[in-house]
Design brief:
single chain; alpha/beta; 4-stranded parallel sheet; 8 helices; 10 strands
């Protein structure tokens, strides 16, 4: 949680027993980044971004657009978006994925409806509850872009409870391509998690070898659509 995150950054900045650190999905705020810089510990962010730190991160805005475009190309017009709270600084990738979703709707001249956007606490059960709210509307969406695979699995739980068949009556696309996504036959966005770890580790080793002259080297990973069994054309 945010308090644990803040305590971790505070304690890390006081330590000198490590040669380097990989921070995964924990982007620091400006004050924390400054404190970490004063610790003189080489640090690389993975799946996180700060302008003054080395980082490897996916093109989340592009991912949001690709996910939405896939559903539009299948013929969907009523496309919802479900995510964590977008206002939290804890994980800004959610906002970027949402921004990509909005941009793709606009590019394809599909009107955005606030009724089809919902956000809440993190977790599969919370995602299920949010999806039930979306799907119980008088004019429910025919497709849902989930900001993570965990959200998408929660959506599928909701559909099962409501007797809605995926993908015939509802298309669902996730984000991350975690291992469970393959087990669930979930269409998703692959942000190449293994490759981000490889690139982050190599970047850190270069810093430790003093061969990385740029103090804030950045690498953006492109993302890819993985089509499986949870997306299809809407019923006519």
């Amino acid at each position: 949680n945010p308090q644990q995150r803040d305590n971790f950054f505070h304690n890390l900045s006081l330590r000198s027993k490590v040669d380097g650190v990989l921070l995964i999905s924990l982007p620091p705020d400006d004050d924390q980044a400054e404190a970490l810089a004063h610790s003189h510990i080489p640090i690389v962010l993975i799946d996180g971004y700060h302008p003054n730190m080395c980082c490897v991160y996916p093109n989340d805005q592009q991912g949001g657009r690709i996910a939405t475009r896939h559903l539009i190309e299948l013929g969907h017009q009523k496309i919802a978006f479900i995510s964590d709270y977008l206002s939290t600084p804890f994980h800004p990738s959610m906002r970027l994925r949402y921004q990509g979703y909005r941009e793709e709707l606009q590019a394809k001249r599909i009107s955005f409806s606030s009724r089809y956007q919902i956000e809440g606490k993190r977790g599969r059960d919370h995602a299920k509850a949010m999806a039930i709210k979306l799907l119980n509307q008088d004019d429910p969406p025919t497709a849902i872009v989930a900001a993570s695979d965990t959200h998408a699995i929660g959506v599928m739980d909701a559909a099962q409870e409501l007797g809605i068949h995926v993908p015939d009556e509802l298309s669902v696309i996730g984000y991350d391509n975690i291992r469970d996504a393959e087990y669930m036959n979930l269409t998703t966005i692959d942000q190449h998690l293994v490759q981000s770890g490889v690139d982050g580790a190599n970047m850190l080793l270069d810093m430790l070898d003093h061969s990385l002259e740029d103090n804030c080297s950045k690498k953006v990973l492109e993302v890819d659509l993985v089509v499986r069994g949870t997306t299809g054309c809407p019923l006519s």
